[in-house]
Design brief:
This protein has about 450 residues and is α+β, with helices and mostly antiparallel strands. It has 13 helices and 10 strands. The chain has 2 domains: about 240 residues, no CATH class; about 190 residues, no CATH class. This is Peroxidase.
Length: about 450
């Protein structure tokens, strides 16, 4: 029987692709008064965007609302219900820093974005196709806060695509994503078999064959999910200098960058163009993700087994292993922040720039945290030992990277912290009915 997603009850960011160009903001608030926080939710409810028209939006702009574990506690959710949430959500990312590899320069002591343990309780996620639309959505939030002194803004990160329409390291972004059962339309070539809806939305069957559920009454969790939010600072100057120091020409630098990422910077995959970039292929959504690894590139001669895209989405490469890659899929929403470092500049200008990731997953433990700890920060699953992701991995375990090349295997030594965590939290994204339940008091205690 076909899956029917209740799109009008699912918050839009779960399915909506960001527009291009995009203009957005993450607004983080502290709750000091539960009743005023519920008033805020009631005021926002008419403006919260659903996924009902996600593929052909009437308005290419949206507001969505998330809550941290501490936010739900401060809202008045009973301790009985709170205790049933996943342990990763209850503890929060800062407390799980060692497991997640947020050590050294990425340690939470260096974070500049609030998290659940130091003031972030409720968040507004705004995305729009123009700055005018963004300002309109921000005005909605500002009006909803009027007179509510018990809810205070503690952080804001504005996001927007750089002038070259790429993320700060220069790569085209947002190419690969799973196709979800029931979302409508047809999958693009390369998306493979539809992912079970319960991997990304509570209330539906997941890849284990069971209905993904949440804590407390169904009215709270149905059509909700979790986001793993990560603020990642990108050291663009260090990345550029590393490429320069490990290649003897501009073309060689592009080749090294592609071998680290698994795609040329145009978005063209090495799997389909291993020797030279093909920007036209990179722009073609019906071709740029249509490839596999098993049987076609098992030893990574085209796409290195330790490259970034092959780590975060192994596709069919683990077919003969004990790991079922379908249990660890993520729906990735990434947005750049900060000014672009001008082309050719090799010295850091002191400006903060990077990417905000919002990773949709119904099971934070076996989805985001598994991918982060086992695939990004460990190489055992691809017989790479302690080697980590060359773009985003921790460097205290290993700082080298190797890939097949002619006439001999190429090894890159002295990898740096190109991507450093500057904030992170597991947040709950309720369905719109769940927001209504929370706003109305449900069986809250205060």
């Amino acid at each position: 029987m076909p899956v029917q997603l209740e799109l009008d009850d699912i918050q839009g960011t779960v399915l909506r692709n960001r527009p291009m160009p995009y203009f957005g903001a993450y607004l983080l608030f502290r709750i000091d008064d539960a009743k005023q926080a519920r008033t805020l939710l009631r005021r926002l409810l008419p403006y919260v965007t659903s996924a009902a028209d996600w593929d052909r939006p009437v308005e290419d702009a949206w507001i969505n609302v998330v809550l941290t574990f501490e936010g739900l506690r401060r809202l008045g959710l009973s301790e009985t219900i709170l205790a049933e949430f996943p342990v990763e959500f209850r503890q929060g990312m800062a407390a799980r820093k060692v497991f997640l590899g947020d050590v050294g320069a990425s340690d939470p002591e260096h974070w500049d974005m609030p998290h659940g343990a130091n003031g972030f309780h409720v968040g507004l996620l705004v995305m729009a196709a123009s700055d005018e639309l963004r300002q309109q959505k921000l005005a909605v939030g500002h009006e909803a806060l009027a007179g509510l002194g018990g809810v205070k803004l503690v952080g804001r990160v504005d996001v927007g695509v750089p002038p070259n329409l790429r993320e700060h390291f220069g790569f085209a972004d947002g190419i690969s994503r799973p196709y979800i059962e029931g979302q409508g339309g047809a999958p693009l070539p390369g998306q493979g078999e539809p992912a079970k809806a319960g991997e990304f939305v509570l209330g539906y069957v997941n890849e284990l064959g069971v209905v993904a559920t949440g804590p407390g009454p169904e009215a709270l969790w149905r059509n909700g999910t979790y986001l793993a939010i990560r603020k990642i600072h990108q050291d663009v100057a260090a990345f550029r200098k590393y490429l320069r120091d490990n290649a003897d020409s501009p073309a060689g630098q592009e080749f090294v960058a592609a071998k680290m990422m698994g795609r040329w910077r145009s978005g063209c995959p090495l799997a389909l163009a291993p020797e030279a970039d093909d920007p036209e292929l990179g722009r073609d959504s019906r071709r740029n993700n249509d490839f596999a690894y098993y049987g076609e590139d098992p030893d990574g001669r085209r796409t290195p087994v330790g490259s970034h895209i092959r780590r975060v989405n192994p596709r069919d490469a683990l077919k003969e292993s004990l790991t079922d890659a379908r249990l660890h899929r993520l729906l990735r929403r990434g947005s750049s922040y900060g000014p672009m470092l001008p082309e050719g500049v090799l010295e850091d200008d002191g400006q903060d720039r990077g990417i905000i990731l919002a990773l949709v997953n119904a099971n934070p433990g076996r989805q985001f945290e598994f991918v982060q700890s086992q695939w990004i920060n460990d190489g055992d699953f691809v017989s790479e030992g302690s080697r980590t992701d060359p773009i985003a991995g921790r460097r205290d375990h290993s700082a080298d990277y190797a890939f097949p090349a002619r006439p001999v295997r190429r090894r890159l030594a002295g990898l740096l912290d190109f991507a450093v965590t500057r904030g992170g939290e597991h947040v709950f994204l309720p369905g719109i009915g769940g927001l209504r339940w929370l706003a109305g008091g449900g069986d809250l205690q205060t």
